[in-house]
Specification:
Layout: H1 2-6, H2 9-29, E1 33-40, E2 43-54, E3 59-60, E4 67-70, H3 73-86, H4 96-99, H5 117-122, H6 135-138, H7 144-150, H8 168-182, H9 186-198, H10 240-243, E5 245-247, H11 249-258, H12 273-280, E6 284-285, E7 291-293, E8 298-302, E9 305-314, E10 317-324, E11 329-335, H13 342-352, H14 354-361, E12 378-381, E13 386-392, E14 395-399, E15 411-417, E16 420-424, E17 435-440, E18 446-451, E19 454-458
Helix pairs in contact: 2-13, 3-8, 3-9
């Protein structure tokens, strides 16, 4: 599937456009290196490196190059929380203090609801963005002892549940919950329960050595003089659950593919499908309704799609994982420069390449027409509504022709048994998932149609 899809003429030409653009971006922006991968369902259909993983070593970037992925780590922490939730060891509405008895912070709004685990995953706890140290400036990251000493000296920034406010502190605390509830260090739990089952053998929770084979060198942004230098190499220490993991495009693709799977948990299915969908659903929606948060995942509406994923920013690295679960399409971008723009690249992918993949993987339209479909086509009426069954884009569909725009509420009819169809629609007021049964008379003509629990009857004309 991977080879045939990547060589599909439409997909190949779209990828060619992306490649040409990326070559130019590296040339004119002066990014040292970039690695990218494109996924469809359970396949990494195309991956490539551009530029250099290390300028000093003259080492080319490849899909297997290792990058510090910073805040994409939060998705692994959220996954661990959901595994423990599914195992019955915690609840999302548990108070943080139910599991971290030592947690204390000043309350700037004493009447606000208590902080829960779900608040941490949706960034709605009102916590400060960071533990009270300037580690993004001096690269001196705190220890667990530093955290327990400093937290009581800080205060919440906002009342709980009034707005989302991104917080590395919050996800570091979620990592503490994982360690406490699981009874083992955070890095050990994630390595054993998440990375190993997924086959992510070249992904590291703790900081790898600076000279680890295949690790990209991180570089500063390009200054007005044109200069770009190597960044300090840091260890995230206590904020590891928020921003410290290291991986490659090919390894992270295994985690990305999990998001497109369904079924019961077990083996490489480290979370059941219903839990993955729960994580991808909106749990906090911004006032403009175009973005929000799932459980750990950043949600965005772009180009008519709902995208889920996360970005990462660490000294010397910029990364992005962006997925469309509805189409089972995704992209991973990793750049070893502080002025890299992986989210812009992800947007170009969804604009240029994703539509070509969707066209190449769309099922043949002829499969939408059952044998003898002509007998079902016609006009129907019930006491409350008119209905019309017709063929549209090669499929049998049901519409309400009386509304201003019937195309906004099209119901596709999928055959499941003789004269019986299952309704598929995005219109929530309709009977999505329920059955349509065409009842035939002795002459083989439709005499009545059962739609869900109600009936409608054929009419020769709208009279």
């Amino acid at each position: 599937m991977a080879a045939s899809l990547a060589t599909n003429p439409g997909v190949r030409s779209a990828i060619g456009l992306l490649e040409a653009w990326l070559d130019s971006q590296l040339a004119y922006r002066g990014w040292p290196g970039l690695s990218i991968g494109i996924l469809h369902d359970q396949e990494l259909i195309w991956a490539r490196g551009f530029g250099q993983a290390s300028l000093e070593r003259a080492e080319a970037a490849t899909p297997d190059t290792l990058y510090r992925i910073a805040s994409i780590t939060k998705l692994f922490t959220s996954t661990a929380i959901m595994q423990l939730r599914d195992a019955g060891k915690l609840r999302l509405d548990d108070r943080l203090t139910d599991h971290l008895g030592w947690f204390k912070i000043g309350q700037s709004h004493p009447d606000a609801p208590p902080i829960t685990i779900e608040h941490l995953l949706t960034h709605t706890a009102g916590l400060p963005r960071e533990l009270g140290f300037p580690y993004w400036t001096d690269s001196n990251f705190p220890t667990a002892e530093d955290a327990r000493r400093r937290l009581p000296e800080q205060s919440t920034a906002l009342p709980t549940e009034t707005s989302w406010k991104y917080s590395n502190l919050g996800l570091a605390l979620a990592g503490e919950v994982v360690a406490t509830v699981a009874g083992q260090p955070f890095d050990q739990y994630v390595s054993e329960r998440v990375l190993k089952p997924l086959g992510m053998a070249r992904t590291f929770v703790t900081t790898p050595p600076k000279d680890a084979p295949g690790l990209a060198t991180g570089y500063t942004r390009r200054l007005p003089t044109g200069a770009r230098t190597e960044t300090p190499f840091t260890d995230g220490r206590w904020i590891t659950p928020a921003a410290n993991m290291t991986t490659s495009v090919t390894d992270l693709a295994r985690f990305a593919m999990l998001q497109f799977r369904d079924g019961a948990a077990g083996g490489a299915q480290i979370l059941r499908g219903s839990t993955l969908r729960e994580m991808h659903r909106p749990h906090w929606v911004e006032p403009d309704w175009v973005a929000g948060w799932g459980l750990g995942f950043r949600l965005m509406r772009e180009g008519g799609r709902t995208l889920v994923g996360h970005g990462g920013r660490l000294r010397g690295y910029r990364t992005q994982l962006q997925l469309c679960p509805a189409e089972r399409i995704g992209v991973i971008v990793m750049i070893n420069a502080e002025d890299g723009e992986p989210l812009v690249i992800a947007s170009r992918f969804f604009e240029w390449v994703a539509p070509a993949i969707a066209r190449a993987t769309a099922p043949p339209t002829k499969d939408g027409l059952p044998a003898g479909w002509e007998r079902y086509v016609g006009k129907y009426r019930s006491p409350g509504a008119d209905t019309q069954v017709l063929v549209l884009d090669g499929a049998l569909v049901l519409i309400d022709p009386s509304v201003p725009n019937p195309t906004l509420g099209i119901t596709r009819l999928r055959p499941v048994a003789e004269h019986t169809f299952r309704m598929e629609t995005t219109e929530g007021y309709a009977s999505n998932g329920e059955l349509v049964v065409f009842e035939l008379n002795a002459a083989g003509r439709v005499c009545r149609v059962k739609i869900g629990e109600n009936y409608t009857e054929p009419v020769p004309d709208w009279k």
